[in-house]
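User: what does the whole thing look like in 3D?
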Amino acid sequence: MNIDTLKEYTPKVIESTRQNSLMQAIALGIPSMKNEEWKYTYYNKILQQGFAPTYTPATVNIKKDFIDKHSVSGNNIVFLNGIYQPELSSLKPSAGVVFTNTANTSEQISNDFLIELNNAFATDGLYLEISDNVILTDLIEVLYIQSNTSGIIQHRNKIKIGKHAQVSLAEYYISYDNLPVYVNNVTHIEIDERAIFDSYKIQDGGEVFYITEQTFVQQAKNSTATVNTFSLSGAITRNVLQFDSQDERTLSNMNGLYLLKKNEHVDNRTLVNHNAPNCESNELYKGIIDGNAVGVFNGKIRVAQEAQKTNAFQSNRNILLSEDAAIYTKPQLEIFADDVKCSHGATIAQIEESELFYLQARGIGKDVARGLLVYAFAGELLEKIKHEALKLSLKKRIADLLNIEI
Amino acid sequence: MLKIKNLHVSIEGKKILKGFSLDVNAGEIHAIMGPNGTGKSTLAAVLAGKEGYEITDGTVEFEGLNILELEPEERARLGVFLAFQYPVEIPGVSNANFLKAAVNEIRKSKGLDNILPNDFLKMIREKMELVEMSKDFISRSVNQGFSGGEKKRNEIFQLAMLDPKLSILDETDSGLDIDALRIVANGVNKLRTSNNAFIVITHYQRLLEYIVPDIVHVMYDGKIVKSGDKNLALELEEKGYDWVKELDNVPAN
Amino acid sequence: MSNQDQILEELTSTDYKYGFITDIEVENAPKGLTEDTVRFISAKKQEPEWMLEWRLKAFKEWQKMTEPTWANVHYSKIDFQDIIYYSAPKQKPTLNSLDEVDPELLKTFEKLGISLDEQKRLSGVAIDIVFDSVSVKTTFQETLKEKGIIFCSMSEAIREHGELVKQYIGSVVPQKDNFYATLNSAVFSDGSFCYIPKGVRCPMELSTYFRINSAGSGQFERTLLIADDDSYVSYLEGCTAPQRDEHQLHAAVVELIALNNAEIKYSTVQNWYPGDKDGKGGIYNFVTKRGICKGTNSKISWTQVETGSAITWKYPSCILAGDNSIGEFYSVAVTNNMQQADTGTKMFHIGKNTKSRIVSKGISAGKSQNSYRGLVKVHKKAENARNFSQCDSLLMGDKCGAHTFPYLEVGNKSAKVEHEATTSKIGEDMLFYFQQRGIDEETAVAMIVNGFCKEVMDNLPMEFAVEARKLLAISLEGSVG
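Assistant: Here's the predicted 3D structure for the full assembly of 1140 residues, as structure tokens:
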């Protein structure tokens, strides 16, 4: 697909709004590296794999045990090639929890090519509404499973969390057959007063999995939101995460771990908009980059003039493991209020030789020693996971990736 | 020297001091003891003139002058010194420059010329011995990277340099090990004269073994509920602060 | 905080001390920019043919270029045809002694606190003075000549040391580097040239003083500094301009070349007229400064104190090509009223074992916007590169902004790169601590600001540090203790 052929594809539902979005996407054009937002990621490379916004229903017959293997809570919602699968899903019914599947497209036109592409062609999506005061202890899991398709899979999600409610959500990007796939997701989350929301994104679809995803979180007074992003495998992954604090005393946490090898490429872009006083945000992203892989981090904290007494902290730490690995990081602060405490830091370093030697001196082989030290570096983010079963499963997976035993 | 009468103070509408009265004369050391949250540090901050406190009633006279309307630096120049519970770190400003500015501002207010560099150095050397400060300290930034004990010693060192009439020690003993406590107390004892006075605010009796007070006041819920000699501190230590709550309704003195 | 507001109010109304205009006869080029303007300038300077060709090549490139818009600054479009590209005091082209300098000019420099007379010998600073577009006087040439050091105006260097200029001009900032550098390459009028021969430690600080005086004129000077093997030089640069209601353009280029084991220390105190409280007038300071550590073990250190200009767009950079070379950038940028600054540095690590250090202190007051923009790039082959960056911002008042845009690009696994940044205001607790020791708020603010900038100030040569502290005080409030 290229921009000229884009108009040959018709949206699934012929609605004028979708048509408008298609026209907008065409007008905006495919993002180029000249665009500051895409400075280090070559988007066209994804489209060059032959992906196009057509819909191909899956032909595979997925068994329940495949789902069980990927789910830690057994409380899940399953999408296959962008369509909700009620027979495979097992969301436990619960009072105050409304789930429906629908492409929650928007009439509003944005200036983002990928949002408009999604708006025009999204096939399905998650609509989740949690009523006021509902506290869910079970993790809700969303599985995006892909199988043998050159169609761009696009989910459009909307999540609303009521006052004083508490909920945790995990999203998994999964490939059924390790064939090339491309998922372009857009998610909007609204968190009401004093609600607490925890989110985990697990991107582990294998070496030919392409992801572009954007998550927008709006927070009301005294609410807490945490988004943890684990990028463990994938050809090109681009995550956009935006927090808007609309009212006082919100707490926003962003944690990310990217573990890259071979030719993998991960681009994390976060933006925190502090629009109200007395809010806090904490951000920690850590990267481990091996092979020819490239890591990109772009974090921006924006503090509006009204947002006095903001505390905002951001940190990006990277380890380069190979000669050909590269990292581009740009931690930005834009501050328009004076009574604030903001800091950011970025480091790029290697495994400490002295630490490596210490382990070797105790009889541990160099590769294992290296693995253990990298695992320790990643550990800080794993420890932030509040769900024990999920934490354990990710610990195991990361130990596997590092060839160590834990 | 200091006369506090029926002082009422609120922070953001919350009443903290509720009719606090105290008289301090030259040559005296007063200890103010009491449980946490009873208004001890508020008293210190109000006397020094910190912003954010609403004085709803009462008077504070220092040497016959109403000081409540004065800026903090004006009070300091008159001779009111506060040893902070949490001394502030000031990056890039050396102790020497900081103290020179303070000494000269105070001298200026008395119509004196700036101190001569040699005299200043001599004075520093002399006073440093008092609190056993190491020499490199003078070129370091104010309180930056200081340990808890060093910060408190620095407060006493500044006290020695500025030679105030009234010194308020706000929980100077908190976070100090026994050696640092001894150094700090020793400094205070050497600086004591018949012309100056001290208010020692503390939670524990421990400090008062080293700095012996003339009068001990027990504070609870924003006012003094009992006063006595140094034995009151021991009694308080023995009976605990629950005892104080029972005293709450008994008028002071 | 009414007190602090009052101080801010006072400081925002502090007058610019250097805003006077010198009434002196000048010779101007006709307004506007065409090939003829370029030829006019070159002819005025009696330049050799190669130099004219070089300028014309740049001019052709410039015509194809558009103004950059990526910086975090906002201003109305500049009309490049409404600028006088050459303005010079009318007098003899070369001066043999101080007596021949126009007395009005001498007065001007006395007002600026720069004396051209023998007294200056005591302080051991050799000065080259650029008034509007031309260098009017270089002091101490004889003393320097004994050591083999060349320190003269760019025009003179082109005539007298053509080979050196030809070899190095444009070698660090190529003709078509960027819009303003290309413009400068076409129309630069003068500037300073400096060559330190092998093994020579320059015995005195070299200094250039820039002054824009004429109305409607732009200043486009070009500085070229070469430190040959095993040499050392410390170079100072100061700038002022009269108070005028219109904006004036300053687009300079500075190129530094450090060969094996050479060290260049380049310090700037920039105090161009910043415009008035409402943003009327002031200099647009669009400057390209770059140095190359060409030789092994070479070092380039930039130190800048930026208090002036309506808009500052400036990134003194280091190309660390030689093995074991070192690049440093120390900066204080103060913005007040309606000033905008987008400044920082670029460190290109190319050789092995290269090191760089960045310390940037931004202070914003009034309605100003202050941005740090920096790049640390470690090339694939740059083994063992080390970088440390510290960018701190201090905000005074709630109408200003502080922004940090650091780019870290690392392509070698042996690199160690660290970036730290903080943004804060002067805490009430901190002010109270000063006051409790008898120091009033105004003095406290001055002391805190100076403390905040200490690491940068410590890198300035003594004389300059004193001037810089004064400037900081003038830009921000009354006096500094």
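In plain terms: Chain B has one domain: 2-247. The domain at 2-247 of chain B is CATH 3.40.50.300 (Rossmann fold).
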